[in-house]
Amino acid sequence: MAVKEKAIWTFRTHARQETSTKSHARSRDVAMVIDEPIERGGTNEGPMPVEMVFAGLAGCTHVISNKLAKANDVVIEDMEIDIVTTMDSRGTRLIEPIDVPFPNVVINIEATMTGHPENITEIVTKLREHCAVAKMLRQSGSTVTEHWTINGTAWQEAA
Q1: DSSP class of 158
Q2: What is the pTM of this model?
Q3: In this structure, are 30 and 18 located in the same domain?
């Protein structure tokens, strides 16, 4: 069944603590475990909270790229996303509050696409305008950089 999209909408995530490092969360009917690695006192049964943010960034990048592709008559046949994040952990380690916990985020996107080159360029240039997670990070002070490799070639913005 197609969902009629609203411009403004509300969603909910509920979580409960199991231990001091492990939470069970639910969004819609999807359950998630959030945990710390063993070396940080966790059980390593799920991603850390900060890893969940960047998994969300990868998912947002994927979904918005495909929406842009559809709008521009491009087919994304395959896409892999690798995100490298620099974290200033002084805040989470209770050393001192910091303003920008993730100063640098690099999104490496490898995709196989078919379509007119100008339409593919639209996807690459418009992604940063529409991915809500990337926008949230940028507006919090993070530098978010996208590196695209399309059909085996590093994408270069036209001069």
Answers
A1: -
A2: 0.90
A3: yes
